[in-house]
């Protein structure tokens, strides 16, 4: 494997765990905090599951089970916990699209099987598989509720009579659904979850460019900002600045009015985002220049090479740019 091949493979691995958009990044920032996940799960899981789960054992697990071609649509989080004294998993998938995926029961079953397969590989002496509780959180700012089935058997192309006759020989699977998009705001605000979870659910079902957003946001944040940790507050500010159409200047007085300490985190985060944006712009310009130099010297540059260049940091780009001046091939540029 060449150095370029290794770099391309590393990028593919990073893409497999990196949230594809700001909505999903915000969801993961909030829901990868165990206390937040516990409050959301307690609010939506059936009571018989809530009472039997040992919440003290709730632990975040690594990895994602979503295929690359679907990462622009979904993000997922996996937790483990003791259920009735035995190890179990809770698998959360967030769906932000307003177009409902009618094949979701099949997709969720695939992810559940993937989790079992990984467990079996990691525990070769195991004789049984852990229970997995699958939960889809559906949310969008168009308030379009979930309209498709959560049952796998509803996807089977058989008439009802034949389906009943063959039911024992077909896989039985159903996922739990938290249809946030269908819940009215007052009911959602009354949900017994931690402030960071409530803010995330409310913001992701709202249009953050609507007229009068400032007063609405002030009312929503009132009483909740004080319950956020610095990490949660940074995630909130990042989401508002990246997704909403309110500028730093618009948002600053809201945070100052509601919580002076929150304003400090807000200003620090806003400055970090500005610096990141400027650094990204410089790196993009350097990457573009490097690709132009390689194209002029070596001819057509592959898409794989372009992907590697576009993902690199400034220091790496500068090193490659220097080598490109004397290299005899594209491979020589990335040889060290």
Automatic annotation (TrEMBL):
Pfam families (UniProt xref): Transposase_31
Residue span(s) of domain Transposase (putative) YhgA-like: 21-210
Sections of the chain in a coiled coil: none
GO molecular function: double-stranded DNA endonuclease activity
GO BP terms: DNA recombination
Top-level division of the source organism's lineage: Bacteria
Sequence similarity: Belongs to the Rpn/YhgA-like nuclease family.
PANTHER family assigned to the protein according to its UniProt record, in alphabetical order: INACTIVE RECOMBINATION-PROMOTING NUCLEASE-LIKE PROTEIN RPNE-RELATED, PTHR34611
Name the record gives this protein: Rpn family recombination-promoting nuclease/putative transposase
Species for this entry: Nocardia panacis
């Amino acid at each position: 494997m060449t150095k370029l091949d290794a770099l391309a493979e590393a990028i593919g691995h990073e893409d497999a765990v990196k949230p594809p958009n700001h909505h999903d990044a915000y969801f993961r920032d909030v829901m990868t905090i165990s206390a937040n996940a516990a409050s959301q799960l307690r609010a939506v899981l059936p009571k018989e599951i809530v009472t039997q789960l040992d919440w003290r054992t709730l632990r975040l697990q690594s990895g994602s089970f979503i295929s690359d071609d679907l990462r622009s649509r979904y993000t997922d989080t996996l937790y483990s916990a003791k259920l009735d004294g035995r190890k179990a998993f809770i698998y959360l998938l967030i769906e932000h699209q307003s177009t409902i995926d009618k094949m979701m029961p099949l997709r969720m079953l695939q992810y559940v099987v993937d989790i079992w397969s990984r467990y079996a590989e990691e525990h070769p002496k195991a004789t049984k598989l852990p229970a997995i509780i699958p939960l889809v959180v559906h949310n969008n700012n168009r308030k379009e509720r979930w309209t498709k089935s959560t049952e796998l058997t509803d996807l089977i192309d058989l008439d009802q009579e034949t389906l009943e006759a063959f039911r024992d020989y077909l896989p039985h699977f159903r996922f739990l659904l938290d249809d946030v998009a269908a819940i009215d705001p007052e009911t959602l605000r009354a949900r017994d979850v931690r402030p960071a979870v409530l803010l995330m659910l409310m913001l992701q079902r709202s249009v953050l460019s609507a007229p009068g957003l400032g007063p609405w946001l002030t009312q929503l944040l009132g009483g909740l900002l004080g319950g956020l940790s610095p990490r949660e507050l940074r995630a909130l500010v990042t989401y508002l600045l990246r997704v909403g159409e309110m500028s730093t200047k618009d948002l600053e007085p809201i945070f100052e009015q509601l919580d002076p300490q929150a304003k400090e985190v807000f200003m620090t985060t806003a400055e970090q985002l500005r610096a990141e944006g400027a650094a990204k712009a410089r790196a993009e310009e350097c990457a573009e220049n490097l690709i132009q130099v390689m194209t002029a010297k070596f001819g057509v540059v592959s898409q794989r090479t372009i992907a590697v260049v576009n993902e690199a940091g400034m220091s790496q780009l500068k090193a490659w740019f220097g080598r490109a001046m004397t290299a005899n091939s594209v491979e020589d540029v990335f040889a060290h």
